[in-house]
């Protein structure tokens, strides 16, 4: 669906992307995970043809981005910084503008608002929406014309947990319908939950990529099993054949309340690889 090879980009003297390579398969949710300033927005702009790269190539639908046809572009939906919401217009009229641009019949507007939980706000002006509702309106705009490929730049940035969950549900529904999604985030829990594969971006370089579970397993250096006993005690045992008998006995005696393996989170992996946190304290 997307093939990105050796993409480099500098702004004046500053190198922002240094040789980015990845492929995105049809039907997957691919997450570009990195802290603020890593180069995520720059890369999304290059992938969507809003900015050209200095070096390397990007193809979408097996074509160079610069040579996509009008029809191809209609199969793409883009949300950057929740742009495209007109404050003075109602939710309905906001979507009407895009329906007209994309040649979508107006009777789809209500369905689209319903999909993002904004049916009751159809005639409310965008200026009177909460932050979470506005984010969902921006998302509705992306889906208006049923695109096959969707780019979302930090779709849940700065939103409350409930809106975040709603947006996750909407994105997963789109995937179920066969959409391919490219999203950026600096939230590792979001990446772990939503993405089939992620690339960890730091200072313009992909430092690791793969399925979130595989990445976490790969950096599981400790290989321990952590248990919490009903008595309140916490213990750790090595992940080894010698522990098996003991754990089995403890389990059959009903003494174990919880049992966990010790894989790191994506956040910990990122810290190990870069010495930086994904979500830096502001
Ligand atoms: N148009 C621009 N001109 C100069 N520098 C830019 C421009 N756009 C982005 N940058 C710089 O590129 C780096 C990466 O920015 P960006 O892609 O927005 O990162 P992210 O989206 O991961 O936060 C930052 O240091 C930013 O200041
Ligand atoms: Mg950004």
Estimated helix fraction: 25-40%
Enumerate how many helices there are, as a single number. 10
Q: Overall 3D geometry?
A: globular
**How far apart, in Å, are the first and last alpha carbons?**
36 Å
Main sheet strand line-up:
6-7-8-3-9-10
Instruction: Kindly report the oligomeric state of this protein.
Output: single chain
* Secondary-structure content class: alpha/beta
Description:
The structure is a single chain. This protein has 282 residues and is α/β, with parallel strands linked by helices. The chain has a domain of 42 residues. Helices cover 35% and strands 28% of the residues. The strands form 3 sheets. Strands 6-7-8-3-9-10 form a 6-stranded mixed beta sheet, with helices on both faces. The protein has a 4-stranded antiparallel beta sheet with strand order 2-1-4-5, with helices on one face. Strands 12-11-13 form a 3-stranded antiparallel beta sheet, covered by helices on one side. Helix 3 packs across helix 4. The longest helix is centred in the middle third of the chain and has 16 residues. The relative contact order is 0.15. The site of adenosine-5'-diphosphate (ADP) has 10 residues, from helix 1.
């Amino acid at each position: 669906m997307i093939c990105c090879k050796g993409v480099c980009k500098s702004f004046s003297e500053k190198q922002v992307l240094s040789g980015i390579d990845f492929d995105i398969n049809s039907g997957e949710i691919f997450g570009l995970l990195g802290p603020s300033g890593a180069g995520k927005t720059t890369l999304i702009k290059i992938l969507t043809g809003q900015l050209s790269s200095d070096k390397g190539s990007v193809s979408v639908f097996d074509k160079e981005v610069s040579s996509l046809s009008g029809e191809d572009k209609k199969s793409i939906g883009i949300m950057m910084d929740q742009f495209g919401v007109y404050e003075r217009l109602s939710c309905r009229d906001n979507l009407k503008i895009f329906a007209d641009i994309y040649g979508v019949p107006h009777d789809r507007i209500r369905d689209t608002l319903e999909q993002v939980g904004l049916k009751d706000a159809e005639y409310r002006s965008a200026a009177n929406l909460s932050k979470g509702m506005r984010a969902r309106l921006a998302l509705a705009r992306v889906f208006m014309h049923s695109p096959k490929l969707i780019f979302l730049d930090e779709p849940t940035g700065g939103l409350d947990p409930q809106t975040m969950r709603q947006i996750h549900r909407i994105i997963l529904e789109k995937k179920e319908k066969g959409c391919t999604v490219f999203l950026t985030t600096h939230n590792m829990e979001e990446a772990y939950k939503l993405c089939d594969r992620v690339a960890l971006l730091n200072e313009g370089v992909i430092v690791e990529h793969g399925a979130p579970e595989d990445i976490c397993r790969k950096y599981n250096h400790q290989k321990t099993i952590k248990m919490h006993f009903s008595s309140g005690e916490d213990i750790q045992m090595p992940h080894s054949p010698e522990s098996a008998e003991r754990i089995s006995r403890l389990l059959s005696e009903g003494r174990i309340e919880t049992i966990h393996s010790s894989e790191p989170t994506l956040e910990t992996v990122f810290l190990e690889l870069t010495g930086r946190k994904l979500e830096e304290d502001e």
